[in-house]
Amino acid sequence: MRAFILGAVLALTASAAAADLASEFRACSAETDSSKRLTCFDAIKIEPSGTAAQSVPRPQSTSPITMTTVVLRTQAKDLQNHVFSPRIEALPTFKNDAKKTVVAIEHTLVIADAFGEKVIDGSSKLDIKIPPGKTVQSETFYYWEDNQFLPGEPYDRLYGPIGTGMAKATITVTKAIFSDGSVESYR
In the predicted model, what is the mean pLDDT of residues 62-90? Predict the structure, then answer.
């Protein structure tokens, strides 16, 4: 385990300071008292390189890109429009309060029934262009088809709550890619 940590640190810091860092790791590894060894490792300062620190998305508290609505609807079988099975569709709309144009997002999607039980709980990535200060409905939508041979699938569990209007959808943006190439991550 220590060799793996040492190898990972050396790979990240390919400079003259890497030798000093390696000697600090070796010194800490040689310590026989476990609490002194832990204190030794905690005292090592690892400075990220300038390029690596700039390319890593920095977590922020809340996303300036938010879901405004998610239209949940049932779609009947429609052979003319290439809908071969009944399905549930989710069409999200997002607002961009950032000062830059969004070109892609990563997000979580949760759809709960009337009792608040999660039927859909997952994450996805979506290519969507949203200018600053604008609200845009995604051209891409999510759907869950009915498979008559498999009972209890998402379609079966969503059909009732969506039909009664009691289903609740929540989308939380966790990462955004902007037109200038910058990336921001959110908690």
Answer: 92
Nearest by Cα to 158 from 69, 70, 68, 73: 73
**Which residues share a beta bridge with 105?**
126, 176
Alpha-helical runs (H) found in 31-153: 34-43, 50-55
- Other residues' Cβ atoms within 10 Å of the Cβ of residue 68: 12
pTM for the full predicted model: 0.64
103-118 per-position pLDDT tens digit? 999 999 999 999 999 9
Rg (CA), the chain: 24
In angstroms, rounded to a whole number, what is the distance separating the alpha carbons of residues 110 and 3? 41
CA dihedral sign of residues 121, 125, 131, 136 = negative
- Between β-strands 87-96 and 142-145, what pairing exists: parallel, antiparallel or unpaired? antiparallel
Q: How many CA atoms lie within 13 A of 174 on its CB side?
A: 12
